[in-house]
Specification:
Length: 120
Amino acid sequence: MILFLLLTLVVLAALAAAAVVVLGPVRRQRAVRELLDAADALEARLRAARAEIEAVAGDEGRDPVGEAMREMLRQRLWLREYGRRASLAQLAEVRSSIDAARDRIEQQLNQIERARLPTG
């Protein structure tokens, strides 16, 4: 009975190790794909945001869209340089940074929209 349990544990451990080896690259590829999709979506939103901001404020003053575009470019360069060796946690951190940039630009756009509304 003990031998059967030990054999079962060894088989389960081997299956778990095989799953890690097989699924590890799949998880990494998915994380990189999702990161690139998020960066593409942010870039598209930033381009639209720039047009909205320029329509309201012109080309004057601080450029929050430009700052976000530069941050996104830094993230893309980091991914190209280190993406193949990056851990899943590092990829998640970059994704989180992109999501935070998207949230910041959305907040700024909401402020612009509220400023455009007539006060009554």
